C-alpha cells in the first residue's frame, strides 16, 4: 500500500503528460483536416458533400463527353470545308480594250471559280457597233475552250494557288488524346501550347500525359491548272 502511494504522483504526472500530448495531437489532426477540407473546397466548389473519387470520376466522364462532342464538331467542320472547296467563292475581273478603236476598257473577263479552279469564265467583248459575250467552263484548271490571255489573267487572279484534283484543304486540328486511348506513332511534330496545357492538366490529375496527336497531314499545291491550252486573240474569237 505504501508502494502505491509512493508511485501515485508519478502516475498522475504521466497521465497529465499523456493527456497533454493527446490534446496537442488532436489539435494538429484538426488543423490537418481543415487544410484538407479547404483543398477539397478549391477542387470541388461549394456544393453538397461528395466522395472525392466519385467527383474525379464525374469530371473524367464529362471530359470524355466533351471530347466526343468536339470530335463530332471537328468532323462537321471538315465536311463543311470540303463543301467550301467546291463552292464558287473565288472571283476576279480583268478589264481591257479588245479593239484599238474602242477605248475606255469596255471589254472585261470575269472568272468565278472554286479552290480547284473549276467554274466558269465570262468575257464581254465590246466594240463600237457590236458586243459579244463568251462563256467557258473550267474543270480543275482545264478549260473546254482555249482561254484568251485576259481570261488566263482572270483565272490566275481568282485562284493564285489552286488545290490539286482530289485534294482537300487543311483539316481542323484534333483534340489531344486521353491516356487510355490508342496513341499515335512516335516521331510526329511537337505539341503546340494548347496541347501542352492539356497534358499538364492531365498530369495534375495523376494520369501520365499521352503523346501528342499528329497534326493534319501536309498537302501540296498543284500548279497544273496554270497550264493554259493556248492563247487566244484579245477579241475572244
Describe the structure.
With about 240 residues, the protein is an alpha+beta fold. Among the domains are: about 50 residues; about 80 residues, no CATH class. It has a five-stranded antiparallel sheet with strand order 1-2-3-4-5, covered by helices on one side. Strand 4 and strand 5 form a beta hairpin.
Quote the distance from N terminus to C terminus. Answer: 136 Å
Order of strands, main sheet, comes to 1-2-3-4-5
Rough outline: rod-shaped
Strand content: 5-15%
Outline of the structure:
The chain contains four helices and five strands. With 237 residues, it is α+β, with helices and mostly antiparallel strands. The chain has a five-stranded antiparallel beta sheet with strand order 1-2-3-4-5, covered by helices on one side.
Task: Note the main attributes of this structure.
disordered C terminus; 4 helices; 5 strands; 42% helix; alpha+beta; single chain; rod-shaped; five-stranded antiparallel sheet; 237 residues
List the helices and strands and how they pair.
Elements: H1 2-44, H2 52-85, E1 90-96, E2 107-113, E3 119-126, E4 131-139, E5 142-143, H3 149-158, H4 193-204
Antiparallel strand pairs: 1-2, 2-3, 3-4, 4-5
